[in-house]
């Protein structure tokens, strides 16, 4: 079943709003900080997304890429 352009636009705006809320909470909880490994940060952000929005599937494998991995396309 194909969704209308309006439905797709509404879903994208909803995802954007959720992402903004998630990033704000990541900042508030200081989940990204020195001394925490990349894998720990990713696990914490995934857990927060599940807690806040019930998200269990992610379109991207990695949420966080600190240091030299920031520009990595892995």
Q: Rg to the nearest angstrom?
A: 14 Å
Shape estimate = elongated
The averaged pLDDT comes out at: 85
Helix segment tally: 2
Given the helix and strand composition, which structural class is it?
mainly alpha
Domain unit count: 1
Could you tell me how far the N terminus lies from the C terminus, measured between alpha carbons in angstroms?
33 Å
What percent of the residues sit in helical stretches (DSSP H or I)? 40-55%
Count of extended strands: 0
Oligomer: single chain
State the order of secondary-structure elements, H for helix, E for strand: HH
User: Which spans of ≥5 residues are poorly predicted at pLDDT below 50?
Assistant: none
Largest sheet: none
Report strand %: under 5%
Layout of strands and helices, then pairs:
Elements: H1 5-28, H2 38-53
């Amino acid at each position: 079943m194909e969704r209308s352009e309006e439905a797709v636009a509404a879903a994208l705006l909803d995802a954007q709003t959720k992402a903004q809320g998630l990033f704000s909470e990541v900042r508030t909880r200081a989940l990204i900080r020195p001394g925490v490994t990349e894998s720990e940060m990713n696990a914490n952000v995934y857990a927060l997304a599940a807690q806040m929005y019930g998200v269990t599937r992610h379109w991207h494998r990695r949420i966080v890429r600190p240091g030299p991995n920031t520009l990595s396309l892995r």
